[in-house]
């Protein structure tokens, strides 16, 4: 009997969610949360060593989603480690009550379940359901502090997210309509593998219309400008571990859905090229977010806008297409997930030390809390795209491949990147250096998750192992 | 193929668009909920007719869900909720009924033009259904944009979901997975909304979202 990794990746979070909803006590549930995410990560890793399941009507594991599954479960695991120490402090200062904590842990596992389901499924209907579930769980977590601001953020996120999800469903129905004459009625017309096999004979105009709806729908979840309005609020007002998984995972999964549909359109010779649409939305996001960075007074909002910028870069890269740009996009996505969640781990600790998220009330962190302060500096250096860290390499690849093919498009791209670097260092200077401001006691949170992420990003910047490169190249080729 | 089947399906889907227009100009919450109940009822009829026309018995389940859950249960619960919140007498100022209706007409025209052109080769029953469904979706969006009250926004969203169900049932032989999931997600969404309404009420004296907009997080 062989080990079924896919079932494990789904069943572990689902079971854990149930258990965590029932079990009382902080220590036990925090350990259980960490344990469950660790097991999911190990199960995801085992996908490398065991034979992949045969694609059925519901389950599909290929090179593309394997990247996403491993990344998702890994960041899910490290975030749960961070969350354990972070939440303990929130309980102490009374921002969370034990009942809400139980709810929080159960929702965390539900989110992991939903994300994994969206990734491993072979069915566009099931994928839609999973992303909807992920939205609902994150909405309830964003609003968990029940303050004025948290409620506003959650409401905004809920309304915009639901509208996006509704448009995506309409797009999904249209894809089915396009597939149905060629494949026939029933479940097969919603399965990726059969859709891909028959894509060339689908009605191109229906596919085009479907892609517009899907781009608007899932694009809202990716946080592309001008559909990003929910993102900064949701990041700023929820618990910080949730900001980390929102930026690091949920945006990626929505992008994954878009990529799948992009592949579907690319397989049809008469359908419109999805690239230009993605390129323009990506560029708008990059430039818009880069300028918005200057006006941020709230540290979590600052990095939320930075996420919009980076999702823009990734969407841009995938929109460009071709082996090199796709490779860069994939690499950038992994690097961004790791770096951004590391930054949010640091920011969570900083906000707990200072008792505020306002940049104006922080200062001199490298003096008062050296480990935390320099951790943040390293994170910002990484996210700004300076060498020798991983994001430098992926951004360099994106920019150079763009210069080689479409020099005019590279100009706004480079402009956005430079403007963003300026803004990030301006804000970093205020927080990390200068006169110490605000409380200076030691942070309670664990530094391990942050430094393990940054270590990975540094390693990737210096040396990418051969098998990994080969694997990413294979995926890039798959993406077309 | 202008048979009776087609005419009735056309009539029902068209009525759904009409009721969507009626939703646009209701300024009292009770009346709004009643019209929404009518909306869900027409949807149930339409889905049931599709079930009959396509000979797809599983669609009767979707119709039953629409009838029991959306046409009866949700309006009743929302009625009780707005009484509890003490906002049942509130009259909402719907900005510019005239322009809103005109905009709605424009949206319907847009969806007809887009859908009918795109689906030129499809079965006429499916085409019309899809065009009407897109109109209902767009009108729901319009309603969400023009309303300030949380309850009316939610009603707008639910009418939008009705449009999606119409589209899903119109697409021949679409697997049941999706229909049930649509109904189910509405249920979940509704619970979330319910929680939110009470939480909002707990903190503020109004369920007007304008009260929520005071905070931007950037002001010093």
Written overview of the protein:
- The complex is a heterodimer of chains A (480) and B (220).
- Chain A is mainly alpha-helical.
- Helices cover 78% and strands 0% of the residues of chain A.
- Chain A contains 19 helices and no strands.
- Chain B has 220 residues and is mainly alpha-helical.
- In chain B, helix 2 (29-54) runs antiparallel to helix 3 (58-85), helix 2 packs parallel to helix 6 and helix 4 (97-118) packs antiparallel against helix 5 (124-146).
- The chains are: A mainly alpha (480), B mainly alpha (220).
- The interface between A and B is large, with 54 and 51 residues.
User: How many β-strand runs of chain B?
Assistant: 0
Binned, the helix content of chain B reads over 70%
Backbone shape of chain A: globular
Order of H and E elements of chain B:
HHHHHHH
CA-CA gap between termini of chain B: 66 Å
Give a quick account of the main beta sheet of chain A: strands, pairing sense, barrel closure: none
For the record, give the distance between the C-alpha atoms at the N and C termini of chain A, rounded to a whole number: 36 Å
Structural class of chain B: mainly alpha
| Tally of alpha and pi helices of chain B | 7
Q: Over the alpha carbons, how many angstroms does the gyration radius of chain A reach?
A: 21 Å
Q: Write down the oligomeric state.
A: heterodimer
Number of domains of chain B: 1
Low-confidence stretches of chain A: none
Structural class of chain A: mainly alpha
Mean of all residue-level pLDDT scores of chain A: 89
The count of helical stretches of chain A stands at: 19
Give the largest chain-chain interface (CB within 8 Å): A-B, 54 and 51 residues
Secondary-structure element order of chain A, N to C: HHHHHHHHHHHHHHHHHHH
